[in-house]
Fold these 4 entries.
Entry 1:
Amino acid sequence: MSSLGLSFTAAEQVTLALAVVLVVLLSVIGYRAWKRSRITPEERERMRRDALVAAGKMGDATLIEIGDDLLLYSYDVRGIEYTATQDIALLKQYMPSDLSALASVSVKYDARNPANSIVLAEHWTGLRIHKLS
């Protein structure tokens, strides 16, 4: 008899031990499945860019500065000026090689949240190049 006043037969102890092992095993399997299903920050950012390319409003922007991995730009929406940066570290292959030929810049933004914007994505660019004839 235990200190709690409970006594278990050998069969009950084995059943209890198997139940504990089963709960632990299912917890480990569930945790690993949850970890695998999580979206990485890079994938979340790619999805945001894709949504803006597909449904974003387009407007004119002013490119303020081009850094190693950042674009700094500003744009107006309904009389409000927004200044934003976009991390382009994963998009450098889509940047034009001759930045001196940039003529103008377009921005795609979310009409419900105009601060959510991009200038460059995998399948769209707002960096317009002036072509010399």
Entry 2:
Amino acid sequence: MNEDVDPSKSQGALPRVGMLGIWGATLAGTVALFFLIDACGARLQAPLAASPPPDKTSISGKPDALFHVLVALIAVLVTGQLLARLFRYIGQPPVIGEVVGGILLGPSFLGRVWPEAAAFILPPSVGPYLGVLAQLGVILYMFLIGLELNPAELRERLRSLLAITHSATVVPFLMGAALALYLYPRFSSNDVSFTSFALFVGVSLSITAFPVLARILTDRGIQKTGLGVMALGCAAMGDAIGWCLLAFVVGVAQAKVSGAFVVLGLTAAYLGFMFLVVRPIVARLLARADEMRWTQGIAASAFAALLLSSLATEAIGIHALFGAFLLGTVIPHHSPLASTMTQKLEDLVVVLLLPAFFALTGMRTQIGLVSGTEEWLVCGLIVVVASAGKIGGTLLGARWASAFGWRDRLKLGILMNTRGLMELIVLNIGLELRLISPTLFAMMVFMSLATTSATAPLLQWLEPKSAKIA
């Protein structure tokens, strides 16, 4: 008996009105449950805020700063590429090797076994410079992710996509908010409100790494199957929801709750402006220029629009990368502009600029802060809750939508549990805003690597024996 059901043929499983009612009820229930969790957390007391450590990454003004930045980039680039090849050889996504390379060069490993070499390759004085390069790299990377989104491929399976994405976002979000009740008194401080902390933990457990997932599907040759298209669609839609939630969290954290709804209103207005005004204008201009040649003038205009969009979201009170991602989504996926910019930017961003982000993450990740059996058990608890929420939420949504058989539902849940680089971007934002402590940051980085590296082995384990032999 064939268990795999084409979701496009099962759209009549639930009437449209019934689906809308269920979505509305689950949304209302999610809000109610979060407020219940928030009410419980409001009575918790976190430790007193420690005085901020001296800024060891301030610009020193030494003339050899550029030298050290170049050395750091070369070291991270070479180490990351070597480890990426090693991880690809053992069946893991190469991005894990790139991230591990940055961590190994930081205080967690090289700083312990060879402090002199670590001080030479990644001295604290290069932090601000790497930070600027990392921000630029992430902004361009999120722009490329926006260009990769193709809404046309999702329309045939829209109702199943909505059901699965809805459940795969709500369940881990609520589980993360509930986990915050345990984490807040132990790994936060009283200058961070429980509301901001719980929202951030919930969002961080809801993230799926769309680009890493795409690479895994391509490596396994299933990106064009029903399961592959559904996984890509759910990941893309889930990431879009996740970025919107993160924008709200940033607004709450920066506006101290009172002005958060102003930030949220401005964000909604900007979203409407981009999709209702900018997108039709861009589509009309590109339709008239099918044979448009790539010139420096066109490149300058595109980059100016990218920077303006990033500047607008930064001015609103959310992160600049949201503006870059939004601009990418409003450019038609199959347009010559999208394909040309992807070709010209992808290698520069992925190979040269993102290593700066991995180096910065490595400098910030101090695995040594996770010490003792209790803290490692907490780290394991975070991994279990994150995996259970994402896989369980996906299974619930797929069952709700009557999509696929049980084996493919489980595969979809495992794929949605992939986090990778997108999780690291979210965690770095949380650390910059002081929403999470360095210890919790290290735990979350470990969770991101653990859930991503588990994807390929679990998928292989679920393959039928005949497929494994073949």
Entry 3:
Amino acid sequence: MLDENSSLEDVRVFFANDRFATDACGCEVLEAAHGHSACAFTIGPQHINAQGNVMGGAIFTLADFALAVACNVGEKPTVSVQSSIEYFNMAKGARLIATAEADKSGRNLGFYTVDIADDLGTHVARMTATCFRRA
């Protein structure tokens, strides 16, 4: 996988293979380290729902993408086995930024929190997730 000393460019190249997140949603990796990541997308027409707000699925995709980066840099291959998201506010800015942090990173399980905000500082959502590390 990606070792702890992987460059940001190496991480970006690896996660470019997450086609739905990168191609369909426009997600990009801003920061990547063991147990931490920041990812973002610029809000476009493909993210908007019938009510004119950013669709919950687009927000979830960004959060899931940030989770994948945070839990796979410097770890065995890791997958999400449970996630829950709470939506707090509508996005008011032009970009969404998801910041993922490891709450506990164990040998087989990892517990993470992902906060999603817009570029104006509006706290849009929070995801919590449990991840499993494959042998």
Entry 4:
Amino acid sequence: MKTLTLKLPDALLAEIAREARARNVSKSEIVRERLRQRSSSSTNRTAASLWSQMEDLVIHSDTLPTNLSADRAHLKGYGKNRSHR
């Protein structure tokens, strides 16, 4: 196994050390597990479709006016200076 040296923020190092003590394993083992989890979750995220990743951000068509693109009346006065400004 290769060795990698890195600098961690004190809070993260303390969190890793607490977990290692609680589980009675080395800090290196905790870091390896977290890297594996992160790697597998990012793989799953890229495998998901764009739609499934953004579905909660999409406005459903039944909440919008049905004639928004065809009826130009809703654009009347758009872009003109407002008198209250």
